[in-house]
From TrEMBL:
InterPro entries per the UniProt record, alphabetical: PdxA (IPR037510), PdxA_fam (IPR005255)
Subunit structure: Homodimer.
Binding note for cofactor: Binds 1 divalent metal cation per subunit. Can use ions such as Zn(2+), Mg(2+) or Co(2+).
Keyword Transport: no
Residue numbers binding substrate: H148, T149, K287, N296, R305
Principal place of residence: cytoplasm
Organism encoding this protein: Kiloniella laminariae
Cofactor: Zn(2+); Mg(2+); Co(2+)
Name used for this protein in its record: 4-hydroxythreonine-4-phosphate dehydrogenase
Keyword Nucleus: no
Function: Catalyzes the NAD(P)-dependent oxidation of 4-(phosphooxy)-L-threonine (HTP) into 2-amino-3-oxo-4-(phosphooxy)butyric acid which spontaneously decarboxylates to form 3-amino-2-oxopropyl phosphate (AHAP).
NCBIfam families: pdxA, PRK05312.1
Amino acid sequence: MTKATASPLLRPSLPLALTMGEPAGIGGELTLKAWLERRHSNTTPFFAIDDIRRLEVLAAQLGLAVPVKEIAGPEEAAGCFAEALPVLSQKLSDVVISGQVNPANGKAVLGSIERAVELVRAGRAAAVVTNPINKAALYDIGFKHPGHTEYLADLAGISTPSVMMLACAQLRVVPVTIHLSLAQAIKNINQELLTHTIRTTHRALQDDFGIAAPRLAVSGLNPHAGENGSMGREEIELIIPTLELIRKEGLDLIGPLPADTMFHASARKRYDVAICMYHDQALIPIKTLDFDGGVNITLGLPFIRTSPDHGTAFDIAGKGIANPASLLAALDMAAEMAKKTAGKSRHAPKAP
């Protein structure tokens, strides 16, 4: 480990907290490459909550010239960021073999997330940025959540449904239902959930993205948005009445729109975010537009959280070919959101 000197660059006072993610995946490689990309830029620094030794070994294996410095707290990150990757120690319990899940390390993975949340909520870090986890590797230690998004809501003590946004330069999307089968997603869509999702998204666009008067486009559920009931009645019986009620609150809403015609370039100019009814309806267009640069954002939390829009990629772990573009975008977006919300109080939305 290196002894680092203070950076001459002017940097914000609060750094970003970057979690470990699944150690057998590509998260460690992304962390190392992200530091190489950002070390000399005048951007918000970050620190990793990770096992120092495993990062040093991984850097050597991949041929990445990344010096690592252990820090005692986030306050030390900015001072050494230009010279070394700041790491808050989170020791693993067992060895790491790229591409091979080891459940013994699950507690460290969750511990990294919990510490990041604690530090941000304590005002010692600006935002949580999470590397990808593998849920199956965590079930043996009692993990009971469908994904990262729901787990973070639980850590925040929020009982309202999680709201997930995916964003890139060309598009923002929010699925009303997230990690459910298509059959279950359709059953779960109701007026309360749709209203909660729209209100939470509207507020986040104002508070976190600085859009004073957000324009929200809402998709239909069925092909051609039901085509006046000939292809399904959910639009007529649920979506349209819900949108009419919310419009009375002054929200700028268009829809329900046919999902197959709302994502081309000219259509996207009409709105700031697309509210979609289920997971793939939202994620297919954004991953088609920018597979490497998409960012996952959890809305409605009392803290900022972003993440790369991809998984652990076990098939390429340890090979040195992982693309850090999505993590870099997640770090940049977290920093930008933190600047927009600096000095503002963050509250979870009320239950629908």
